[in-house]
Specification:
By secondary structure, the protein is an alpha/beta fold. 41% of the residues lie in helices and 18% in strands.
């Protein structure tokens, strides 16, 4: 009897705490939305204030970009853009999301950079070096990485269609704040939102025997995750 009573009290306390937490979040989102509305209203009156997330495709000197990278990464980034919008709206901020630039052909603008060295000279720890190699191309396009958010897709994955094995040595991390940030991501031929429901099996060097769909869920989800860090967001529950 005592145990049941304690359990009821605990559950009631948890429910009360959960409700109070949700109420606090709701109040904060309303207050934050007023600030955001004013900021975006002012920004919309000044075309020069429009902000984009800039995309870079970096590949080693001895390697061509992975097949269909423009269309694949276009689908990935639009998917992430829609995800952010849906989550912002769900949390009471309206469908706010990242801005993405389009080329004249309707595909997303992706700046292509060829590294100074061959693939063997790069590793997962080469993020700073890769970014430095991207700077001349970005600056030539009028983009200042000190005041912009950059996503660098690194062509450092290994996919064997015959053995269905995949591994990579790409930087896969990010950091930033509301002013600027950089996210390093992996690209590979099977990275595509069209593959999210693919049940064919593969061998991932990090995650083991998994489906192509689960592999894509992990790495496309990782794009959203790392981009969040580039925008200044911490891990959840921090």
């Amino acid at each position: 009897m005592l145990r049941s009573l304690l359990l009821c009290l605990l559950l009631g306390s948890c429910a009360s705490h959960s409700y109070a937490h949700e109420l606090m979040i709701a109040e904060q989102s309303v207050a934050a939305q007023k600030i955001l509305d004013a900021f975006h209203s002012e920004a919309n009156n000044n075309a020069g204030e429009k902000r984009f997330t800039h995309l870079v495709y970096w590949t080693p000197a001895d390697r061509e970009p992975a097949a269909e990278y423009r269309s694949r990464l276009g689908r990935v980034m639009r998917h992430v853009q829609s995800f952010f919008a849906a989550e912002m709206e769900r949390n009471g901020f309206g469908p706010r999301t990242i801005g993405l630039q389009q080329d004249s052909d309707g595909q997303l603008k992706i700046h292509v950079v060829t590294g100074e060295a061959g693939m063997e000279d790069y590793a997962k720890s080469s993020g700073s070096r890769i970014k430095q190699e991207c700077l001349p191309t970005l600056r030539a396009a009028g983009i200042d990485p000190k005041t912009e958010t950059i996503v660098i897709f690194c062509n450092l994955g290994f996919w064997d269609e015959t053995t269905r094995e995949m591994s990579h040595k790409s930087p896969y991390y990010a950091g930033g704040n509301q002013v600027s940030g950089t996210a390093w991501q992996l690209d590979e031929p099977i990275s595509d939102t069209n593959n999210l429901t693919d049940t064919a099996m593969m061998q991932d060097a990090e995650y083991g025997h998994i489906s192509v769909g689960k592999h894509n869920s992990i790495f496309i989800g990782g794009v959203a995750h790392e981009l969040g860090h580039a925008l200044g967001l911490p891990h959840d529950k921090q």
